[in-house]
Amino acid sequence: MGISALTPPPAAGDPMQTLLEFADNRLLVDLCGEYDRNLVKLETELGVQILHRGNQLRIMGESEARARAAETLKSLYARLSDGKPVETGDVDGALRLSQGDEGERQLEMFRTGQVEIRTRKKIVAPRTKAQQDYARSLFDKELNFGIGPAGTGKTYIAVAAAVHFFAEGHVDRIILSRPAVEAGEKLGYLPGDMKEKVDPYMQPLYDALNDFLPAKQLPKLLEERRIEIAPLAFMRGRTLANAFVVLDEAQNATELQMKMFLTRLGEGSRMAITGDRSQVDLPRGQGSGLIAAERILQGIPGIGFSYFTSADVVRHPLVARVIEAWDRQSPSQV
Asked: What is the pLDDT of residue 118?
């Protein structure tokens, strides 16, 4: 790939160093980022020092930190060599995949692009091991649960998989649903017809679709009902065949609603159910269908459960800190 690495013996009084050489200076400029921001991020996160000179990067610091920095840089350079951009989130993802005993194997998967979801508009590359396992499960199993806090990519990856299956002709329709749980305002009090009343609840699903489908295609597919976005209550009595079905915010489905939804699964269909057990908005005393499904369906062949933590948050870094602080104060809600 045009990268060579050398760990030279230290000079007297100098720390151990790892030297990386890159064949393409243009890609190296992109690797470093504007004003070397990607290098600064690695220095801050890993406690190393990275010097950029010519086509070389010299990494100084503790042995383990140097190794992680080198693997991360090589992974990102390979990404650039494949014609893909390197953004802040990609640096975070490569850093996370360099952690732990399986870091080297996971980085190899990241470099070779084995764990990617291709949509009509972009390629989605999972940025943590949990996200990779979840993406793989969405392709391997017909019924999947993604459970964890906000910002971990549960819904985003599920909708990306739905668009991929649709674009490749594996399913005829995409159906996205959420419970329209009222939060202070009754649906009947909101202006407009039923679609206008429930659309605000569905907006996160529209946002995800807009990321994966060309702007001119989405309205046409919605009009033709090849893509359907509807409240969970609208699923009753239907059989969802040859469709990729995503239920978002499933913690706000009641136990009866969850059973109803799961039994809609028809021939040639797949389902992804996502939710956060710590954000149940149901009335007091009303059991969450997500928690019930997790308890009842664990261990059943063909059903996948993927779990996320604050370490998988891919929004602003402060989101992970908020979740961790909140969980420390409210352990009973986790």
From this structure: 79
How many whole angstroms separate alpha carbon 287 and alpha carbon 232?
Answer: 16
Half-sphere exposure (Cβ direction) of 331: Cα atoms closer than 13 Å: 1
Specify the pLDDT at position 237: 84
Kindly give the residue spans of alpha helices, DSSP state H, lying in 125-190.
129-140, 154-167
Which residue carries 């690495």 as its tokens?
5
For residue 208, which phi and psi values (nearest 5 degrees)? -65, -45
Structure tokens belonging to residue 103 = 């870091």
Residue with tokens 């508009």: 121
Q: Which residue numbers in the chain have pLDDT < 70?
A: 1-15, 98-115, 181-198, 315-317, 319-320, 330-334
Residue-wise pLDDT tens digits, 291-315: 999 999 998 999 999 999 888 887 6
The position carrying tokens 């992680």 is 68
The 8-class DSSP code of residue 280 comes to -
Interatomic CA distance for residues 288 and 281, integer angstroms: 9
Distance CA 318, CA 293 (A): 31
Pairing of strands 56-60, 49-53: antiparallel
Residues contacting 241, CB < 8 A, separation 6+: 266, 267, 268, 269
- pLDDT of res. 106: 47
Which amino acid belongs to residue 153?
G
28 to 2, 25, 89, 93: CA distances (angstroms) = 11, 5, 18, 19
What is the token pair recorded at 258?
A: 């969850």
Q: Identify the helix (H) or strand (E) that includes residue 173.
A: strand 173-178
| Cβ neighbours for 320, distance < 8 A, ≥ 6 positions apart | 151, 310, 311, 313
**Phi, psi at 124, each rounded to 5°:** -100, 120
Secondary structure class of 211 (helix, strand, coil) = helix
**Beta pairing partners, 58:** 19, 51
103-123, pLDDT tens digit by residue?
A: 454 444 445 445 678 787 888
